[in-house]
Design goal:
One of its GO terms (cellular component) is extracellular region. Keywords: Disulfide bond, Signal. GO terms for molecular function: signaling receptor binding. This protein folds into three domains: about 100 residues, Immunoglobulins (Immunoglobulin-like); about 120 residues, Immunoglobulin-like; about 60 residues, no CATH class. A hairpin with an 8-residue loop joins strand 22 and strand 23. It is mainly beta and about 290 residues long. It has one helix and 23 strands. Strands 3, 4, 6, 7 and 8 form a five-stranded antiparallel beta sheet that branches. A five-stranded mixed beta sheet has the order 10-17-16-12-14, with no helix packed on it. The radius of gyration is 31 Å and the shape is elongated.
Length: about 290
């Protein structure tokens, strides 16, 4: 019958090597139970392939992430079956763990933001411990971040801005599926153009010293969809007539330098200089200069 073994996979670091531990409940039984633990991973075709098989009296089993039969980017499972000694033909129903994804990942895995100036948190974490050289107190993995705009017609026009182009994942004790983490912010670039919704991808690539486990690994990108918002406009034209952002109309025939527009939330303003352009027939002023900050 089913014994509710409830196997769970967690990462462990021992003697500078990364292991995965499959732990399960240990029901009391006389004679004591033995367990068959089968480790498997998802292949590129989506099928499970067995990579290790253990028979044990303990309520756990280990497998090493050695970059050969188990590496970063793999989804790993452990399946546990119990039997009594000398009755190996009487097996309990096999119980499988949830898949453990050994990776560096973004949370959230995708973002939908708007051109409204708001900052959005993006967390990068490692689900496995970071291995560093011996006696290295600042144990970390450095990630170089880059942005790819998927709209080929708008290359060179950044769609999003990051608070940092490089982050460090510092090793900490593993808890809640995270063994190292860093946070940055993502903001949509307000481009004052009605160019529709655009999609970008944020890419992270480990740089500098890397253990064998990390050497040939690149994390999955995070997809960012930026929703286009209507752009406000104001005008000052001819002698000069002024139309504000909210559609009010004014005339200003005076000569001098004036503050045309100023933001109350950021360092942005526009000054205009108006000068006589009517000659002797009429007193008319026109824009002759502009300065923007």
């Amino acid at each position: 019958t089913s014994l509710a073994l409830q196997p769970v996979i967690s990462p462990k670091l021992a003697q500078g090597r990364v292991y995965l531990k499959c732990a399960f409940s240990h029901p009391s039984s006389k004679p004591p139970l033995q367990y068959v633990v089968v480790w498997s991973r998802l292949s590129t075709s989506g099928k499970k392939e067995q990579i290790q098989r253990d028979t044990t009296l303990q309520s756990f089993s280990y497998i090493e992430m050695n970059s050969i039969n188990l590496r970063l980017g793999d989804t790993v499972f452990c399946t546990v079956t119990a039997f009594m000694r000398n009755t190996a033909e009487q097996l309990s129903l096999p119980e499988e763990s949830k898949g453990f994804y050994a990776e560096i990942k973004f949370l959230p895995e995708s973002l939908q933001i708007a051109e409204d100036g708001k900052e959005h948190d993006l967390t990068i974490l490692s689900t496995v411990p970071i291995v560093c050289p011996q006696n290295d107190d600042s144990c970390k993995i450095t990630l170089q971040l880059s942005i790819e705009d998927l709209d080929s017609q708008l290359l060179g026009s950044p769609n999003i801005a990051l608070s940092s182009c490089q982050v460090d994942l510092l090793r900490v004790p593993c808890s809640e599926s995270s063994c190292a983490a860093a946070t940055l912010t993502v903001t949509a670039v307000t481009d004052f153009a009605q160019d529709g919704n655009r999609i970008s991808r944020i890419r992270a690539e480990p740089v500098g010293w890397r253990d064998l486990l990390w050497r040939a690994y690149t994390p999955n990108d995070v997809k960012v969809t930026v929703r286009d918002l209507p752009t406000g406009n104001c005008y000052s034209f001819t002698d000069p007539h002024i139309i504000t952002f909210d559609g009010w109309r004014y005339d200003n025939y005076k000569i001098g330098t004036f503050l045309l527009c100023q933001s109350v939330s950021r360092a942005f303003e526009v000054n205009v200089r108006q000068w006589d352009c009517g000659g002797h027939h009429s007193a008319t002023s026109c824009n002759c200069g502009v300065a923007a900050r």
